[in-house]
What we know:
By secondary structure, this protein is mostly helical. 67% of the residues lie in helices and 1% in strands. It has helices at residues 11-16, 34-56, 82-94, 98-111, 122-132, 136-147, 153-165, 169-182, 186-196, 201-214, 219-231, 235-248, 254-262, 270-283, 288-299, 310-322, 327-339, 343-356, 361-373, 377-397; strands at residues 116-117, 120-121. Strands 1-2 form a two-stranded antiparallel sheet. A hairpin with a 2-residue loop joins β1 (116-117) and β2.
Amino acid sequence: xxxxxxxxxxxxxxxxxxxxxxxxxxxxxxxxxxxxxxxxxxxxxxxxxxxxxxxxxxxxxxxxxxxxxxxxxxxxxxxxxxxxxxxxxxxxxxxxxxxxxxxxxxxxxxxxxxxxxxxxxxxxxxxxxxxxxxxxxxxxxxxxxxxxxxxxxxxxxxxxxxxxxxxxxxxxxxxxxxxxxxxxxxxxxxxxxxxxxxxxxxxxxxxxxxxxxxxxxxxxxxxxxxxxxxxxxxxxxxxxxxxxxxxxxxxxxxxxxxxxxxxxxxxxxxxxxxxxxxxxxxxxxxxxxxxxxxxxxxxxxxxxxxxxxxxxxxxxxxxxxxxxxxxxxxxxxxxxxxxxxxxxxxxxxxxxxxxxxxxxxxxxxxxxxxxxxxxxxxxxxxxxxxxxxxxxxxxxxx
Length: 398
């Protein structure tokens, strides 16, 4: 890695690590214990990393049946030289026409598979185009064949992305490692660290610490390190890294979204985290989820410093108006309304939370007892029976 060694990764330990639940994304994380919330954060970063590959590719807005390379100006085919094929493919990619770019890239690749004009690597971009077009195996075969004669960090990184797409996480990690060792770019180190989040938080932490030291101004390096720390239960230091990332780019909501997803605010950072959520709400006033995170941070419920505040209810009310699908916001709003003896409103919000997350037995339980407090015994019994059924199903699936 340019004379600098990445801390060694114990591949034997990585391969022995159970991946049974590592890539399970639960559609609703409403009642997840903190261990599961940590897994949720790890997955969030992995998905964020994977989205980087999508951003390096191009969204395809037109998917016609693929034919020969056509001159974009005339729409006619022909025998084009290397530079023409590269020129046409670049134009098609700029226009988000992946399927029209691929024939031109294939032509260029057949002429010179090692061509790299002004940073436009023909094989890399053809593989990326195949991947974006959903032709994963074609992308993999292309890159693997090229690597046999041309060892290149970018191709190893792309192969890592392809392996990730195929859920070959061990193989992906090894490709990302090779890429990072050959070229310690921010992208390569981030991809390598992210791949390790699925196996061993300690190893991922070492890579991200290296990345933060090398690229201290990188938002995603701090987020990656924070995620590795969250995965190991080091909540306070993890939150500090997320705050450091937010300080680098206050307009980027991702770092504080990570904090919100953990539902853990270290008391020593409560003021800073609350202030950062407040700033994001000012930047994105129509974002209901950010408003929900701000309300919860402000309430002190996530830092063990809960205090009844009319403002919390007001913020949660605004959050559910902006985003009616926020089950947790409905749930916490209902709790406040129940404490105020506003049982009709509480029942309405508990009901919305339960409808949005029907497998969350906690929501059904609180709904049932809200009916009981309201004096509605028949509905109490009905909802309590629903709770028991869902609770038993939840226990069986664990």
